[in-house]
Every structure is written in C-alpha cells, then in structure tokens.
Design goal:
With 440 residues, the chain is an alpha/beta fold. The protein folds into three domains: 159 residues, 3-Layer(aba) Sandwich (Rossmann fold); 174 residues, P-loop containing nucleotide triphosphate hydrolases (Rossmann fold, 3-Layer(aba) Sandwich), CATH 3.40.50.300; 80 residues, K homology (KH) domain (GMP Synthetase, Chain A, domain 3, 2-Layer Sandwich). The chain is 34% helix and 23% strand. It has 13 helices and 17 strands. The chain has a six-stranded mixed β-sheet, sandwiched between helices. Strand 12, helix 9 and strand 13 form a beta-alpha-beta unit. The protein is globular and about 65 Å long. The two termini are 38 Å apart. The chain binds guanosine-5'-diphosphate (2 copies). The site of one guanosine-5'-diphosphate has 15 residues, from helix 6. GTPase that plays an essential role in the late steps of ribosome biogenesis. Keywords: GTP-binding, Nucleotide-binding, Repeat, Ribosome biogenesis. GO terms for molecular function: GTP binding; ribosome binding. This is GTPase Der. Pfam families: KH_dom-like, MMR_HSR1.
Length: 440
C-alpha cells in the first residue's frame, strides 16, 4: 500500500504549490491526453523507489466564519482520515492566525502523525520564521519553500519516515504456472460494483468479505472463471479508529487509487442509466495515469430501449474518447449478461499489458513507421533520428526509442508512433508509453 500524505492548512498557505511539486512528473504524463479533465486533489509522487499518494485539501477548505473555524469540511476530514500522515502548512510570512489554531485543535485529535510545515520561508532567517509557530505545540516546525523547493526533500523524508515501509516483494515468476490476473473493479458510487463483484464471485464473496480486515491492507480475493485464475483486488476499510472518523463515506478516492495501483487490470464501471459524470472521468483519469490495463463496462444495460442505447453509446464514445485503447462492454451485472465477453477482454488486456516485445521486432516496427512517415523537421531544429527501440517495462508496456535529437519529436508524431506500435503488436486494452533517449 502506498503511504498517503494529506496536505492541510488554511487557504493560500501554498498547499497546491507543494502538491504540484510533489506530483509533477505524473501531471505531465496525463497532459499528453487531450480532453482529459482530472481531479488535481489526488496525485501520486515518488521519492527514490518509494511511491506515495498526496491529497491536497485545498478547494475543500475548512469553513471559516468571522475568523473562527466552524468545522473542518467533511472532505478535509475524510482526507485526514484516509491519510497515514498529515502535513499541516502555515504561512511563514503571515505568522499564526486564529484559523491555524483551530486547525491545530482538530489535528491534535485526529490520531495521525502531524508535521508542521512553515512555508514561504525562502530568504528568511530560520529562527525568526519558526519562533512564532512553537506556540501551536506541534513540535519543531519544518521550514520550506514550496515555490522554490527548499526543504521539500527533508519534508518528504520526515513524512515517509512516519509510515512503516515494507518494500514490495519482487515477484519471481512461478515457472510454468499462470499467475492470477489481479483485477480491480472501480467506479463511482452506485454504478454496480458490488453487484458485479457478486456476479464474478458468486458464493465465495460471503467468505471473502468476512475476513477480518482490520487494517488498510489490500484484500485479495481469489476466484476462478472458465478455468482461469484471478485475484480481485479490493482495499479494506479504513484503519480501526475511534469516533472521530465514523462519518467516512463508503466511496473513497484513496481506496480507489490504491486498488488501481495494486491491480494488473482495472474494470471501470459506468452506469448506462445515468449521464457520464465528471467523477467518472476523474476515475478514468486515475486509471490512465496509473498505466494499468483497462476494460470499460457500461453497466445497467438491461431494460434500456434501443434509441436510448444508441444515445448512450454515442455519449460514451464522445466523452471517453481518451480511453479508446480499451474495450467497451455494455453489460448487466444484475442479469449477469455480457460478463463472459467482458472477462475475455480482461484476459486480452492483461496479455497486452504483459507482452514481451523483443528489440529486433520493436526496431523493425520502428523502421517501418519511420519509412511510412518520417518525423517532421521543425523549423530551425535538427530532424530527429530514430535508431532503435527496446522494451523498458510491462504493465504498461514502455517502449524506449533511442536516437538523436529526439527532443525535437513532436506530440503528434509521438502519438503516431504509439498507434503504429499498438497496431503492430495488437496491444488492445493497455496504455502504452513511449520514451525517447537521445544519444546526445
Ligand atoms: P493553497 O490555497 O494553500 O493551495 O495555496 P497556493 O498553493 O494556491 O498558494 C497561494 C499563494 O502563495 C500563491 O500565490 C503561491 O504562488 C504563493 N506561494 C506558494 N508557495 C510559496 C512559497 O514557497 N513562497 C512564496 N513566496 N509564495 C508561495
Ligand atoms: P456500487 O455502489 O457501485 O457497489 O453499486 P451496487 O452494486 O450497490 O448497485 C447500486 C444499485 O444499482 C443497486 O440497487 C443495484 O441493484 C443496481 N444495479 C447494479 N447493477 C445493475 C444492473 O446491471 N442493472 C440494473 N438495472 N440495476 C443494477
């Protein structure tokens, strides 16, 4: 499980600036997909080999009235509840405000480690900056500048140091045996996830869900279908906790993110009887960002009249165009129709995600692509030269292209290459990443 860091503080202290800094590389990745809106409240970052999730609570700020904090907004509470460690940010140029004190009172009771961080401290004397904030009683403040990056690494070390670390065990292949496909079923509330899981698991579900899931560990539920083995990836409820967090909602973005990141293939469910919402698109965006293989199930297809069905299909194609690499299935979890075909797409997506692509074949396909259409020379720059390609990873497949002046390859041409590789290797159902490595 990835550690979860919540960024908390009153408006304008610099939370989103820090969030962007912590999650930068990922955001850039997603920007490659036109038409994708995403929730910038949740992001993934990495320190060394250690990935983590960050929640920026800016935008669902605590409610303030006459300078007094009335209530931490529900979402902020949820973010804190779902976190492993809270980074509480204050503004070094403004000093303590009543609002900071009110947040402190709340955080003191939250049962999470809290790191007090004084931001906007660039060019200021350490002692002068921190003196004020000892009064909050949260220990030694860390001093940072989100805008310039000073102190951010130390902050991360401190934050991640509060969470026990068990590096993922390396999975040596079980010779000759098929590894179960790890499948996560995600979607916004009420799209039919539980109904689908029931349909997939049948009787087993009862047993599985009785497992004592007292921590936030992932629950893994093995099941078999048509002689194939799968593991359903779910994340258990939140850690056992006192009254403070009883109001946590059934649907949790963090749980969704964790389940996605632990899976090989994600089954994204939508509700055919409702419009596609922003929340659907956000979740789709998370899947895309994670690089996991994807199958989209448009559920509740039963009982829809033909003209409505046409309408829904058109809407799905228009709004989820950025997922066109994935197979779409129109199904009913309730009536258990369409599920066989859907699971065959899960298998195909898994196979594509795990495909082994040899250097000679990749290079041959690259040469074909270039022969068919050479990368355009942009004005005033050297024409890129694409020499050979090798595979840099699986799930998602990463294709690393070597050559010269590759920084001059435009986005259009990158997309062209992606499509070419996708077609050549029949990589349906998985995102594909192309990376360039210039010789000079
Ligand atoms: P949020 O409301 O807490 O998310 O705050 P923002 O990240 O939107 O930042 C509020 C303002 O503070 C913006 O104008 C930022 O440019 C500025 N800011 C953020 N971090 C720093 C910093 O480290 N130093 C300075 N001087 N300004 C900062
Ligand atoms: P979850 O919140 O995503 O787990 O959704 P549930 O599985 O709890 O389903 C929400 C509601 O939608 C329930 O009333 C289900 O009976 C209903 N539902 C789920 N799948 C279908 C379906 O395929 N067709 C119809 N008509 N209703 C469904």
């Amino acid at each position: 499980m990835k550690p979860v860091i919540a960024l908390v503080g009153r408006p304008n202290v610099g939370k989103s600036t820090l969030f962007n800094r912590l999650t930068r590389s990922r955001a850039a990745l997603v920007a490659d997909y036109p038409g994708l809106t995403r929730d910038r409240h949740y992001g993934e970052g990495r320190m060394g080999d250690r990935p983590f999730l960050v929640i920026d609570t800016g935008g669902f700020e605590p409610v303030v009235k006459e300078g007094v904090l009335q209530e931490m907004a529900k979402q902020t509470k949820q973010a804190v509840a779902e976190s492993d460690v809270v980074v509480f940010m204050v503004d070094g140029r403004q000093g303590i405000t009543p609002h900071d004190k009110a947040i402190t009172d709340y955080l003191r009771k939250c049962g999470r480690p809290v790191i007090l961080v004084v931001n906007k401290a660039e060019g200021m004397k350490y002692t002068a900056v921190v003196a004020d904030f000892y009064e909050l009683g949260l220990g030694d403040p860390l001093v940072i500048s989100s805008a310039h990056g000073d102190g951010v690494h130390t902050l991360l070390e401190e934050a991640l140091g509060k969470v026990p670390y068990a590096p993922a065990e390396t999975e040596d292949g079980i010779a000759g045996e098929q590894r179960p496909v790890r499948l996560a079923v995600v979607g916004r509330p009420n799209v039919g996830k539980s109904t689908m899981i029931n349909a997939l698991l049948g009787e087993e579900r009862v047993i599985a869900f009785d497992l004592p899931g007292t921590t936030r560990d992932a629950i893994e539920i093995p099941f078999e279908r048509d002689g194939k083995h799968y593991t359903l990836v779910d994340t258990a409820g939140l850690r056992k906790r006192g009254k403070v967090f009883q109001a946590i909602e059934k649907f949790s973005v963090v749980k969704t993110l964790q389940a996605i990141s632990e899976a090989n293939v994600v089954l994204l469910l939508l509700d055919a009887q409702q419009d596609i919402s922003e929340q659907d698109a956000h979740i789709a965006g998370f899947v895309l960002e994670s690089g996991r293989a994807l199958v989209v199930g448009i559920n509740k297809w039963d009982g829809l009249p033909p003209d409505k069905r046409r309408e829904v299909k058109a809407e799905v194609e228009r709004k989820l165009h950025f997922l066109s690499f994935a197979k779409f299935h129109y199904v009913s979890a309730l009536k258990a129709t369409g599920i066989g075909a859907l699971m065959r797409s899960v298998d195909a997506a898994y196979a594509a995600a795990m495909a082994k692509l040899s250097t000679p074949r990749l290079t041959r396909v690259l040469e074909e692509a270039v022969e068919h259409q050479a990368p355009p020379r942009r004005q005033g720059s050297i024409r890129p030269k694409l020499r050979y390609a090798h595979q840099g990873g699986q799930n998602p497949p990463i294709i690393v292209i070597h050559g010269n002046s590759l920084e001059n390859v435009g986005d259009d041409y990158k997309r062209y290459l992606e499509k070419h590789f996708r077609d050549a290797f029949s990589l349906t159902g998985t995102p594909l990443r192309i990376e360039f490595r210039s010789g000079k």
